[in-house]
Amino acid sequence: MTQAIDGLTSRAMDAAPSITRELANTAMGTQGLIPLWFGEPNEPTPKFICDAATRALADGETFYAEGLGRPFLRHALSDYMTNLYGRQIGSDRIAVTVSGGNALNLAFQSVLEEGDMVATITPAFPNLLAIPRLQGARLITHSMEIRDGRWHLDVDAFLEAAKPAKAVLLNSPSNPTGFMLEHDDMRHILHVLRQRGTWLISDEVYARIVFERTVASSFLDVSEPEDRLIVVNSFSKSWAMTGWRLGWLTLPPSLTPVIEKIAEFSVACAPPFAQRAAVTALAEGEPFIAETIAKYRLALDLVKETLASHPKVTFPVPNSAFYAFFRLNGVEDSVSLARDLIANAKVGLAPGEAFLMKEPGWFRLCFAQTPEQLGEALERLQPWLKQTHG
Amino acid sequence: MTQAIDGLTSRAMDAAPSITRELANTAMGTQGLIPLWFGEPNEPTPKFICDAATRALADGETFYAEGLGRPFLRHALSDYMTNLYGRQIGSDRIAVTVSGGNALNLAFQSVLEEGDMVATITPAFPNLLAIPRLQGARLITHSMEIRDGRWHLDVDAFLEAAKPAKAVLLNSPSNPTGFMLEHDDMRHILHVLRQRGTWLISDEVYARIVFERTVASSFLDVSEPEDRLIVVNSFSKSWAMTGWRLGWLTLPPSLTPVIEKIAEFSVACAPPFAQRAAVTALAEGEPFIAETIAKYRLALDLVKETLASHPKVTFPVPNSAFYAFFRLNGVEDSVSLARDLIANAKVGLAPGEAFLMKEPGWFRLCFAQTPEQLGEALERLQPWLKQTHG
Lengths: 390, 390
Known about the structure:
Chain A is α/β, with parallel strands linked by helices.
């Protein structure tokens, strides 16, 4: 009998499966594996946030909610963003979404026609690239380089490459590199894109996972409300709420009604009880964020110390996000080595290929772990780190 | 300054806003309004279901989950479907989704190329039509007729009209009419589509809201696993879980890995604590469904009795779903009358135009209400029901 999938669209068939997900699937059931491949805090959502959802459930908050989010949450996000960025961001610019991924889907759906081009930077989180591609866009990718041991973006070369693009997609702080754009570059990028009429979709979900300040620089700092700028945020990383699937968009006010319309045909609304948890995270979550960042800083120090002791390991040290993206020089096939590490080191790393890294030998390690787990994982990796000497 | 939205895609701009949503927005703050326009049970989610989510939150089930759903829920859905339909439906055919709408999006995304045609039947729930259209599909719509006071589908005429379609979308039991396809017609439709290689997307979210049996006829009853059939279900209606945004797909086994891949780029996963609530709904929800159906039956009787006393009201009585879809003969503009009803009867009805009903004068009333609320609403409507005599 013919298989049903012979009738599928090429776009769905051609979508690249997640390399990391496939590795994780093969590792399922490996006893004692320390998985550092996914981008997820090691701790469950704090109790005070869960309790807010529990109370809302007991209060019967289980009905459909407004497509743009409950008014109390949109107002709280408006206050939060206004305080964080020191400029008024009205609740008419806020749309609550069902995850950062859903937010990206809605953003691209409102901006892209079939065949449009989207320009972005690599290495990159693969889902960011898969979303516009699934919507029929073609990608222009521009690679960052390493200069003086730091990630470096040649902004003008990127903008030149991005000329044919209908939209530019940026992710700062970046997964996997921890690279951050600063205001001067942001201003320049926005200026050029504004002149071209190009949309800018800025994924800022790691905005609060920063080690030397309170919040990363944002395109919201340097833009006007009616700029063609859509900023994507998520509750997942800052408040350890990955499983909740809650995010938000900051929009030009004129775009909000359009997003309201198309959100209705996506997931329609975010669960109202989860929105109570979200508003509690905003209201009471700052001490949690501060504690978490302190832990991540220690974890990053531990990784830095270990990797620095191996001269043939390249590790541009990040000051944002919770990933160590490093290279084992001499390794020719990261996917094979990642498999080797599962079997023999019992450590799960994501290979660089997953992030469109062309050079071989790169790996992403998520250090949002307890010091014990992370120390043990690094210890287990030692023989492989040493091998690359020879 | 140019507004940002001048740069938007025509598809997003042209998406029809929800007529009903716009009416409801204008009615916001109308004191004492009885809203019967949305398709939602009047009661919150039962406590035993909420409690399961609460326990899962306390247990720290707040991390990312599998893209196809937690294995325990996929197995429970496999058991539920197998028991309900009396034929083996393996868990390898089940994908948990973030709402029925998300399920429809994934289904169409896997099947449609830009410009493909989708054939469907009207009157219809507008979101069903908006989803493929937003993905670039063109629609072929075929109207049902009323024969001998019942909704009637000329199956062969529909199949003839559907010839150019890449996919057929059916919704049985139907929102808004309560029309149900039976096995003979289903077998015939599937046979013809199978010969053509056409996909069938069957939205069966009202499968359990039926008044003369346990479950509506399903295309799963008459199909083979590798038929090009995708069945959409949801937890919203049967278990009063509208706000939870949980649904599922039943797929040809060969399609499951493709859905897994593209679901990763949609919302990635359903919240794990909500999946505990879902599995509890399946395990312990049958008495709740039975009680609810008994209440809906009484509510339908009440509506029937009221509408039958007005000879110029056309009301093809449904035996599924929780809507009365009726016509006030002589009314030329349902949207205007719906506005009049908000202001003067303080009752919210959805106008037929929202469901692509070409004839004027049709309205949808959701009778999933307490007898008191429903009785009061019907009493308030009396003057308008009488007017149509003259």
